[in-house]
Design brief:
191 residues; mainly alpha; Four Helix Bundle (Hemerythrin (Met), subunit A); 6 helices; elongated
């Protein structure tokens, strides 16, 4: 795959993620904190989950890019593990359920709209890193993985994993908020 093609796609996806977060920001706080079922995350819990991953991956990416001595390559070749993770996290119609590590589980956290502000700031930082990645070898630079720091993914795969993960949970947040609005609409019509 051409490195520039990958970066352009990831920039587009990040901007779309920002637009989705901005749309969530328009909803009342009560809707963003409500759950359609006790075992589910609220919309803000979904976003806080992403923020927790962002707190690990954004500095990790930046540090590895700064330390790199590898000049940009026109091509990116995904690693087998990175490609597996990226495909597993990519948004699809039927999502596979994945276990969340306790440190990344926001359930029960007291959250306010500032969670969306943090997410949007992180996405601005992601855009800057993606732009800088044009001068870095996406295949040779390696980053740690949050749940197993000794494991390393290629930089291009790390970008894919983080951004696809963002898309996945933004969809979950939107579905949760839409489901709640639908339930309230039905309740209002029943009266």
């Amino acid at each position: 795959m051409r490195a520039e093609t990958l970066i352009a796609d990831l920039i587009d996806r990040t901007r779309a993620n920002m637009n989705r977060a901005e749309a969530l920001r328009q909803l009342p706080l009560s809707a963003l904190n409500a759950r359609t079922a006790p075992e589910r995350w609220s919309a803000l819990e979904c976003i806080e989950h992403l923020n927790r991953y962002g707190r690990f991956y954004l500095p990790e990416i930046e540090q590895r890019m700064k330390a790199s001595r590898h000049p940009a390559s026109p091509d990116f070749r995904s690693g087998w593990l990175g490609n597996y993770f990226a495909k597993a996290l990519a948004p699809k119609e039927k999502l596979n359920h994945m276990k969340t590590f306790s440190t990344m589980d926001p359930k029960g956290s007291a959250l306010d709209a500032g969670v969306l502000d943090v997410f949007l700031q992180q996405q601005q930082q992601m855009l800057l890193l993606l732009d800088r990645a044009r001068r870095t070898d996406l295949s040779r630079v390696r980053t740690a993985v949050s749940f197993m720091p000794l494991l390393r993914l290629r930089l291009g795969d790390t970008f894919r994993v983080v951004i696809y993960h963002n898309e996945r949970h933004l969809g979950q947040a939107e579905r949760e908020a839409a489901g709640l609005a639908h339930e309230r609409s039905l309740a209002g019509n029943a009266q």
